[in-house]
Design a protein that fits this description.
The protein is an alpha/beta fold. It has seven helices and six strands, in the order βββααααβαβαβα. Helix 1 packs across helix 3, helix 2 (about 65-70) packs antiparallel against helix 3 and helix 5 runs parallel beside helix 6.
Length: about 210
Amino acid sequence: MKITAIKSYAVKVGIRNQLLVKVETDDGIFGWGESGLSGREKAVVGALEHYAEFLRGRDPFKIGALWQEMYRSQYFEGGRVLQAAISAIDIALHDIKGKALGVPVYDLLGGKQRDRIPTFATTFAAPGPEMIEQAKMLVEHGWTAMRLSPSGHEDGPIYEPREHIGTTAKWCVKAREELGDDIVLGIDYHHRLSVAGSRKLLPEDAVWNTGFP
């Protein structure tokens, strides 16, 4: 089996752009991967075009060796764009190998290690009364962990988190008061805060469980 093509599909899912990657083979088996670098899909597409030049004709089963070559064979190693492209290809190669062998991907990664996977749900309303109501609805449906959204995160292409910390913190504390101490709560700033900025979210006496399962 040989790799014949690597194709990119930039799509919008809900409010976020995503980049899907399809790796095709001469056996007709193909695998799907996804790049997580939302908002910079065109840069990742360019990296995928570079990798496609030397991955065509290669054995898709040699996942580890191809990963090393993609990461280390260029003058500059790693970086977010290259890692996003490598990750998408890596996922697709595991998909191909699992299909070809007739086994789930977890068997390629050492076997199943659990029978249940803890998950969390996400409120989509901005911090405020509607967010609290959505969180209560999730609890009523059995969710014990959830992610809240920061204030202003959908206002525009440029986001200044410091301007919204006060409002976000106020409603996060309100969510804790309304939902109780047993619900796991998280807030997702997508790497926009420093350690010091993260600490500003909480009052000195706050009890805040930020550990997702």
